[in-house]
Amino acid sequence: MRITLILFFAAVLLAGCSKMEEKKQNQPETKQAPGDMQNPHGNMQNGSQNQAGDKTDMAPDNATDEKADKLVKEADDFENIFKKSGTDENKKTLIDKHMAAGKYLMFEANLSPKKKYGPALKQFKRVLELDPKNQEAMNNKMQIEDIYTSMGRPIPN
Asked: How many helices (H) and strands (E) does the chain have?
């Protein structure tokens, strides 16, 4: 009786293992490192990858992103125009430029977290200086602050 039971369990175990091996062979191979998770803060429309298909959290600390640099420069340059004129139209344009830079940095830039969240936070804070009721900037600012808090790091000024 014992031998029959042992043989039965051995057969079930072998059948289960062969099915698992069969499933592994049918799945497409991914080049994902063990323990590598998708970026939970990646672009909501494009998953955790930017438009080029690069993983955003995989960028090294010395990586640069030309589009991010361009958007930040445009916002900074427009600050001078706004300081000279101060019109409502220029204020709206300035808010749009800071929002575009902040959102790109936060969701799409192929930069390390160290290089994207601090500058994005700066952009959202500037939007809130110009428009304290801007809900999108407030939500993004709070999300970045939550990221810093969850990592046990001080929130940049």
From this structure: 5, 0
Q: Does residue 110 contact residue 56 with C-beta atoms inside 8 Å?
A: yes
- Model confidence pTM above 0.70: no
- As a whole number of angstroms, the distance between CA 75 and CA 102 comes to 10
Mean pLDDT calculated for residue range 133-137:
98
Number of domains in the chain: 1
Please give the full DSSP string across 101-126, using - where no structure is assigned. HHHIIIII--S-HHHHHHHHHHHHHH
Which domain CATH number covers 137?
Answer: 1.25.40
How sure is the predictor about 4, in pLDDT bands with cuts at 50, 70 and 90? confident
Whether residue 15 is contained in a domain is answered as: no
CA distance 15 to 85: 77
